[in-house]
Each structure stands twice: as structure tokens, then as C-alpha cells.
Amino acid sequence: MARKLPRKDVVIVGLGWTGSIMAHELTDEGLDVIAIERGPWRDSPTDFPPSYMQDELRYRVRHELFLRPDQTTFTFRNKLDQTALPIRSWGPFMPPNGVGGGGVHWNAETWRFLPSDFVLRTHLTERYGASFLPQDMTIQDWGVTYDDLEPHYDRFEYLCGTSGTAGNLKGQIQEGGNPFEGPRSRPYPNPAQKQPFSPTLFAKAARELGYKPFPQPSGNLSQAYTNPLGLRLGPCTYCGFCEWFGCGNYSKASPQTTILPVLVRKSNFSLRDNSEVTRINTDRSGKRATGVTFVDTSGEEWEQPADLVILSAFSLFNVQLLLLSKIGEPYDPVANKGVIGRNFTHQTVSTVNGFFDSKKFNFNPFIGSGSIGMCIDEFNGDNFDHGPHGFVGGGYMGQVQTGARPIESTLVPPGTPKWGAAWKNAVRDNYLSTVKPGTGVHGSFYAYRDVYLDLDPTYRDRFGRPLMRMTIDFHDNEVKQNAFLTDKFAEIITAMGANQVAKQYRVAPYDATQYQTTHVNGGAVMGADPKTSALNRYLQSWDVPNLFVLGASAFPQNAGYNPTGTVAALAFHSAAAIRDQYLKNPGRLVDA
Amino acid sequence: MRNARLTSARRAAGALVWLLAAVASAVGAESDPQDFTQVERGRYLAVASDCAACHTVPGSGRPFAGGRAIETPFGNIVAPNITPDSETGIVAWSDDAFEAALRKGVRPDGARLYPAMPFNAYTRMSRSDVLAIRAYLNTLEPVRHAVVANMLPFPFNIRAAMRVWDALYFREGEYKPDPQKSPAWNRGAFLVDGPGHCGTCHTPKSFLGGDKTSQYLQGATLQGWFAPDITNDSRRGLGNWSVDDVSAYLRTGHNGATAATGPMAEEIALASSHMTDGDVRAIATYLKSLPGRQDGPPPLRADDPAMVAGQAIYRDQCSACHGLDGKGIPRLFPAIADSSAVRATDPATLIRIVLRGARSVATDAEPTSPGMPSYGWQLDDAQVAAVLTYIRNAWGSAARAVPAEDVTRARSALASRPD
Amino acid sequence: MKDEPVMRVGFRRRELLAGTALLLLTGFASRAAVVQGPLPWAPNAGNPPVPARPGPWAFFTGAEGRAVEAMADRIIPPDPQTPGGKDAGCAVFVDRQLAGPYGRQDGLYVRPPFQNGIKQQGPQSEAGPAQQYRQALAALDNYCKSKYAGKVFADLTDDDKDATLKGLESGAVKLDGTDGQAFFEQAVKDVQMGFFADPLYGGNRDMAAWKMIGYPGARYNYLDWVDRHNERFPLPPVSMAGRAEWTPKTR
Question: Can you tell me the distance from the alpha carbon of A434 to that of A410, in angstroms, rounded to the nearest whole number?
């Protein structure tokens, strides 16, 4: 029997980026807020110090900062007629765990989606006609536009101190930036980071091929910065231990460096860590959330009542909690009804490795940062005419040098044996002169009727609750998109002067043993129509108006960019709606 | 937080007004808890005197209820309950008794106070000052909490021995302004030597625990830290800081050069960050008027084995935050180059921070509170000594090398410390 | 949708605060929120890495250790410039890893039922790496004994060792009761991992592998080298345990 705690105004489930943003906004509004986080408290000097963070084995190979599959995992199958089996060891994505969430160990690649991404179905139908889209592709418009989100993208970028070069200032295309981006109201808060040798060479080759390369927008700071909350960040020192690792010297934007020190000082905020929320509770009508139930490390159950529930766990866990709490109609792919679990997507990534003459090229590849790199956007979204190609979607591509930690970066040219003297010599000869893009081709993953989430019928977690089941495979559209993009990328790597390139296309079937970014999205999507969406434009549940569900679970489909900028912009957008409208008049903010 | 306490204190005052009116009339209206001006002045002086640092157990939610053990070289003394509780507090003391305690070091029963209570500094406040503090204390919520103050081992637990100590080291008397100096300088001198009692930590002590007045404010070791030289010495003191730098440090815990950690972090959080701009500037003005010693060893040669090893460690590890040029990042990572703290006579604080790590203070003005990780697991004693020797003698600095034995001793002494 | 009752929930913010505070004081204080106020800190906070302890095998039997050392020396043969897998300590690395959480599958999802699936669904075995190595090494030596006149793997000639390993790799050589191909694939990964991991963990002795490829190790600041394109980085590698130059040289 769960023991009841004193009521709070707001309970926030999961203290990652969106939880921290919402907690900061609502405590500023004067509300009494408690955040409940499944994982432990984490902070830079105590958990990611630059004395032992540089440990590839511990953090990259053994995943020490991440969720343990034993705590919870997923089952996976490609197709509906298969039996899903547990992902016993990660995996195609890496679920975060702990205060800061994925914001601790992301690369800090901070993109905005294109204006056309938010009205995707309308846009593509208008340009190419409805029959150009596969019949089982379930993409839809978001219910919110780029212009709605622009001020919130800006807010997140200034919170983080994002380092970049603007490409479109209020409609004026700027030299050196991304000419395809949506208009921004002001420049980035910090200039782009310095680029090492290989991205510089990539940009030169790209320019010669007629493209317009630009520095990737980076949450690794190019210089010391004080954010609007008064928090100080330092300059990134290019250590090469970014994604998978916490930052040791306060130079990567994270909840820890941009929000938490100010948040925890507020007397109307408190945090319980190492406490897992197991259920969102609703009243008898099922239309009002009354709070959450959580379990502490001793296994004791507690109930935290609250007037407003913010669900801001990692995207997949948002969906799982909705299913387990019986909020919203679960999606049935056969009947094509229901919304929770629908439009589940990931990312379509691939790369091309380049092997150069070691007597002429020394890239010092270990000098890296999560999001330095030069990229081109000519093949993203609908930035090019898809008519001749028979697919939709695309992605950015670039030489993003995130580092060259030796366990995973000692590549050998194609045809080299995988072991023995030949292998050893090839490693010796190639390490410093190999281009191994940290992010090569980063393509979109559109939504399909048979790619979805539901509860597994067989496998359970340590509390006896059903695991969530992922049914996911690559469709022809994404495979074609990736082949096209990978070939274009290979042209640039070759033009850099590579002796040999090794293309690594992304092909079906979707393989749960290959890491493919942690950009898993959807399952509780936003939209204008409650029949095809779980949330309205403010991420408010259509079914339970005092429940807001933040995160990439709201994406109706994934674009060809890293999601965090958009995830944060949506969170700021929701927070503004809660502060300006909901608190004055609690209830549905949007009529269906 | 302070405002919340004030609000509840005001409410408590309202509830207690009838009781206190009786008490006040019994002892005379000199310290009158209903006089707003006096109470406010007393509150400010209590902050400047940092009463809370000793008389409040941190996190207890019971301000000034005592119970906190104060470490002295002679043993622990527990600070008493100074709330207006009728049984365990000091509400029944007369104004004269209160003044005698703060300004003369004598309890109402005639027993002498140990100088852990810095009466030898507070004596510089006037009677009117201390009675204002009394007035403020009387508005607080009474807390029932009995405290046994004297936990010292024999023979130090004999209070009568304080007679001798007082004769040697205690000069009673209000602060006398120097007419040749500016009002700011005088205010600063009053604050430093009076309520601020800076010398209690920053002036080295004789073996009997009295001030070595010839080394006034030149730095002292206590509780495993080194409270640095705060005269205007350019090597080890404030010589390279402007009045603005000193003021920023006292008000926010951080300035372009460094950050406060350890016991000074607590002082800043409880006291100087709540003082007025004018007052911290006055303190800065006074301190910077004190001439430094201007002595010190020549720098070590760059090829000294400790320097060579220290430079390797610095490049491989420390530079990640403190920079390849030693300049750090203002208000985030303290500067190591040209730093008084690094050149301190006694490297106790440096050794401690490297071995155990440190957290700098968070204030409203500077909330980041950056931390330094601990290196005790990674560096052995010779390596810690080498890197400290290096930073003390690089970039134009010069200071005594740190022997490995100092680190060995500190490591075992610190192992038993909880803080 | 318009007919649905609008939910109105009153917010009594400051009064709520006061009420909450009262309740907290009266009894639920022991479960009060964990983090509030200053950022948590304690001296010596953190979780430094646990170095591999030198000494006898922690997991392998003598025979298993010999076999893995021999495999390591073929996967990474010695040459005049750089030690092979054995002298680099790769077998020590694998041994310590198998004796620890990796070998035991700590933290992985090991609940039943265990069923075989498609390759994309990943390993579905109840046995962890430690058990798998034990089984496979026994089977490997048995295979060698039967094929090479009673000699275990470690006692074969280098050519025969290579032939055996190539056979495992291609699937031509089958091991009794265990998937030899999967085992060899994992062994190559583990040995090479030990070669390139921080020497703290038992392999990469003396940072030999890092010196071989020119990897500067556990450094954190390259600010002065980002702009130096196509130049060789001159500093020697450093481990999380430091490097020789960190200790002052006594005259």
C-alpha cells in the first residue's frame, strides 16, 4: 500500500533537459515543484571529473552512465509476425539514467528543424502529390510551426551558449552559415568552435563540389560564457570524450551546467533521486491526473499527489508510462486505431570512412569535440527535388570529429584481415590518417503504420510490469534515401584526397545490435487531431488536461537532424503556455 | 532564506510581545526588542559578526540554538543556545550581563569565556552595538535546547585559567577611530577587528592560542586549512587585487582570480554576502592599507626535478580547467598563475584541495558553485608535492617548495576529518 | 469534444507552501526530498576506476590462461617495435574482465524465457561471457588435442594456431557444444580491447599500443593544438594512472 506524501503543485517525472526546463519555469512562477528521478544525482566534479572521465572502456564500452537493461529494457522485432525478444544488452540506442538524463552524455549537436519539417505532410503532398508518398507512411503535420517555436529555439540556444554561425538572420542568408535553415531572430550566443584539420579539409572539398559547408551548431562552448541564469561555462578543450561521457570542465551544455545549480537553490523546488515512478495516477473518471506513484531503493511504494503532472522521462519511457497508466487509447496497427505507441521512429544514419596516405595526412583525430565538424545541408528535408529519386526525406552530412578513442577508432582499410600481423600493421599505419566521421550521414526516419510501440505479452521488468515492445524495421523509402546520401557523402570524402573509402550503407533489416543514435521518437505524438495524436500543440494530453508529456515522444516523425534543440524548444513553448494560460484557467488549452 | 527567517521572526515577535514587554521593563529599556531601528541594526551586526557560524548547527532549522562544536587546538567547545528560551537560552540575562559576555569575556555567573567566542574582537563594538544585537536575538523564536559548552580535556576545562590568558592577550575597549584616516578606512578597521573578527582565523596564534600581533593578518593554519595572508602583500596577500576584486570576493564568493571554499565559503554565505557594498569596500580599503612583508624565496629553477614532474602533471591534468597558461577562467576556475593563495606560506589549503577536492560557495550573485575533483586517489605524495611546487614557482611566481612529507602528514591527518 | 467538462483545479500557491511545510515538520520528514539547497558535495567524492590487480589469474585456470595468452599472441603477434598481445597483457585484461561484472553479465537483462531469435535481436543466452569462455576454451583444447596428436592450442606451432583460428573465424572448425565462430569473434574483440584500453585495466602494458598508433592517451586539453593542422602531436601518452614523467627524478 503506497504511503501518501504531502501534496505539491507540480510533480515532474524525470529530471533531464525537459524536466529541468519545466521545473525552472514553474518554480519561477511561484509553484511548489518536486522532481522525481529514477537515477542518481550527478554533477561535474563528483561524477565526470577530468581525472578519470577519459575512460573509453568504462563509459563507452561498458556504458557505465546509462540505464542498466536489468532495471528495464525493451523487446524488439522487425515485423508483426515475429516474436519480440528482449534487448538484453544495449543496443541500437542508449537510454539515459540519472539527473541530467541524456543531456549529460550527448554530443551537444544543437540543430533546429526546417520550417517544412513541421508541416511535412501538407508540404510534401503539395509539392509531389499524395501518391508520391508510400501508402503506409503515416507522417503528419505537427500542429505547431517553425515560427511558433523560433523564440523558444532562441531561448534554448542562449541558455546553452550554443556556438555556431548563423545562416539565415531574419530572412537574410549569411555567408558561412547554413543557407537552408529557417530564419533566426539573432545570431548564436557564441561563435563557432575552431575546427581541426579533417573538418577543414572536408569543407574545402565540399566547397569545390559546389556545396555550402558550415560549422555544426555546437553545445560545446567555443569560449567562456555566462548564461541568462548567471551560470558560468568554460571553453571546450577538445578532449575527444564527449558523447557517452559527462563533461569534466563545465564546457558542455547540460542541465548540470545551465540550470540545476540555480534550480536546487530555490526553496520551492526539491528533487528525489533514485526513485522510479511506476504509474501516473488518475481519478475515477480517468480524465484528471492526481499525481504519481513511485518506488524507492528499498522497494517501498510512495504516492506523490500533485495538481499538475509533467511527464518528462526519456521518450520511450513516457510512452511506457502512458500505456501502463492506461492514459490514452493504445495503438493497434492492424485495426489502425488508437494513438499511444503510434508513429514510432528512430534515425537513418550511415557513414563513409576514409583512408588517407599517412605520409601526407595527419589528422590528430583524437582532438575532438561532440559537435565540431563542417556539415552540408543540401540533402536534408525537402531542400532538393526528390521527384527523380523516388524517396522523400534526407539529412545533413558532415565530417564531425568527435574524437578517436582507440578501442573503436582503430579502423583498417577494406580487405584487411581483422586480426594478425597484417591487421596490426594496418592499424599502426592508418590511425592518424583515417577520417572516421563521428556523425557522417544523419538522415530522417519517417513514420509507418507497422512501426510502433506496445506492451510485450511475455517479458516483464523487475516490478513485474510488461516491458515495452518495439516493432521497427527500415522501409524502402529510408533505405533509398540513405543510399543516395551515402554516395554523395563518399564523393566528398574522396574529394578530400582519400586513397580508399569504405561506404557503410544503412540497410534493412533494422538491427538491434548496431548503435544508431539515441534519437528514438514518437509514440505519444503531438498534432491537431486527437484521433491521430496523443497531445495538442502544447504537449498537453488530449485525454488528461493536467498532464503534459515532454520530449521526443511528441515527434510525429523524425527529421534529418539531432532532436535535442527541438525537444527543448517544445518544452519552452509548453512552459510558456502553462504560465500564461493554463495556470490562470486550468483545462484544455486547445479545442479538438 | 534570510527573508523567510525574518518573516517568521517577526511573527514570533508579535506572539511574544507581551512576554518580552515584561522582560524588557524588568531589565531596563536599553535593548528594546520592539524598537525597529535597534532590532534591524542588531540583525545586521549579528550577520557581520557571523554569530550563526558557531551558534547554529547547519541544516538544523534551529537558528542560534547552539550545539555546534567549535574545533580549537585544545579540543572542542560547544557553542551555547543564544535564543530567548526561558530555560536553555539567554532571555533572562540582563543587558549588562550580555555586554559583559561579548565585550569582556565574562559570563553572568562570573566564569570566563574561552576565546573561541571572539570577545577579544567583539570588545571593539560599543555597548550600544551589542545591545542592538541583544535586541535582535530577543526577537527570535525561542528554542528549547540545553547545551553543555565545555568539552575541553583537562587542564583546559578549568575556566579560571582564562584569567591568565586574558591578562596576556585581552585588551578590552571600543574601537577608536583614527582621525588621520578616511571614514571608509575606519569603518573597515572596525569591521575587520570588531564584528568581522578576521584575525581569529587570519592572525597566527601562539602556543597558548593568543594572537601573534607582530604577524597581524599574515595568515594562519587551522582545522587543516590555511587562512591566507590578507594584508596588501603582493606575493601572498591582496596586493594584486583591486578594492573591487576584494569586494566581489566578499560579496559573491568569486572574483576574476579565485573562488572561496572551505570555512571561508561558509563565512561568505552567512555573513559578508549579506553586508552592504559600502561595508565590504570599507573592509577592502582597510586590508589593502596594511603593508605586506615583501619578502620571500627566489623561484625554483625550471629544471628542478619537482618542477619537471610538476609541469608534466599540470599539462596532463590540471590544465583541463586551470588552463595551459594557468590563468583559469574568471569566476569559474581560479587562476593558478600569479595567485596569492598558491604562493601562501603554508600550503595546507593547496594540499587539502588537491587530495580531497573542493566545492566553491554559491551565492545569489554567483550561483554556479564549481567544484574541483579529488586527486588523492590518482597522485601519490611525491606527485602532489611536485605539482604544488611547480604551480608555486611557475609563471613568474616564487614560493617555498612543498616537500613530500608535508603531503604524507596532511593525508593521514585529513583521513580522520569529516569535512 | 466541446461538451466535455473543463477541469478546473485551484492553485493555492503560497498557502500550499505553508501547509506543506507544516506537514513535513510533523511526521514525513524522514522521507523529505533528497536534494534541495546547496549542490551536494563530500570530500573525496567520486568513483575512481579500480585498477586490475597484478598477480595470478582471477578467473582463468592455468590451462585457460595459457590458451588465451597464445590466442592473444596470434591475434596481435609481437614484432620488433611493439609487443604482441601476450606481453602487452591482453590475456590479463580479459581475465580481469571475465572475473568482474562483464563476465557475470551484471546489469544485463537475464530474465527468462530464453529463445533463439533472428540475428538482429542480439544474444539471447543465459550464459554470460565468463561461462562462454570457459566452455569454449575447453572445447578448443579438446579440438586441438584430437586434431594435433594430443597437443593443446598453446603448444601448437604458430602456423597451426593461425590455421585453427582462421577455421574458427570461417566456421570450418566447429567446437563441441559451443559456437566457435561467435566465440572467436568475441575473443578478437576482447583481446584488441585489452590492447587499446587504459593500462589500468591490465592490458596495453606501458601504453605500448598507444605509442604504436600515436594516441596521446587520457588527456583533456588540446586547445593549443586544434589549429595546428597536419602536425605530429609531440607529447607522450598518459594513462589515468599517470606516466613515468609525473614522478620527480631523484638525482
Answer: 9
Partner chains of C (3+ C-beta pairs under 8 Å): A, B
| Pairing of the two strands A441-443 and A434-435 | unpaired
Residue B176 falls inside a structural domain: no
* Percentages of chain A per state (helix, strand, coil), in multiples of 5: 25, 20, 55
Contact B387, B313 (CB under 8 A): yes
pLDDT computed for residue B16 by the predictor: 47
Q: Catalytic: which of A63, A105, A346, A519?
A: A519
Catalytic residue flag (residue A519): yes
CA distances from A168 to A111, A118, A175, A194, A572 (A): 13, 18, 9, 21, 22
Choosing from B145, B169, B193, the residue where a domain stops is: B169
| Interface contact C109-A424, CB threshold 8 A | no
How many structural domains comprise chain A?
1
Q: Which DSSP string corresponds to A546-585? A: TEEE-SGGG-SSB-SS-SHHHHHHHHHHHHHHIIIIITTS
Largest CA distance in chain C: 90
ipTM of the complex: 0.94
**pLDDT per residue as tens digits for the range A549-585:** 999 999 999 999 999 999 999 999 999 999 999 999 9
CATH at residue A438: 3.50.50.60
Residue B222 identity (one-letter amino acid):
L
User: What tens digit of pLDDT does each residue of B304-345 get?
Assistant: 999 999 999 999 999 999 999 999 999 999 999 999 999 999
Q: What is the rounded distance in angstroms from the CA atom of residue B332 to the CA atom of residue A193? A: 20
Domain assignment present for B223: yes
pLDDT averaged over chain C?
Answer: 88
Half-sphere exposure of A407 (CA within 13 A, CB side): 22
Length of chain C: 251
- Using pLDDT thresholds of 50, 70 and 90, give the confidence band for residue B33: low
Last residue of a domain, one of B234, B256, B287: B287
Q: What is the pTM of this model?
A: 0.91
Helix (H, G, I), strand (E, B) or coil at C194: helix
At residue B9, the pLDDT reads 52
* Nearby residues of A52 by Cβ (< 8 Å), 6 or more positions away: B378, C46, C48, C49, C240
Residues B26 and B122 in one domain: yes
Contact B365 A231 (CB under 8 A): no
Mean pLDDT of B68-84: 88
Q: Please give, rounded to a whole number of angstroms, the shortest distance from the CA of C73 to a CA of chain B.
A: 31
- Does residue A544 have a pLDDT over 70? yes
Give yes or no for residue A367 having a pLDDT over 70.
yes
Between positions 8 and 67 of B, the ones with CB within 8 A of A are none
Quote the domain boundaries for residue A251: 3-64+96-128+142-164+181-582
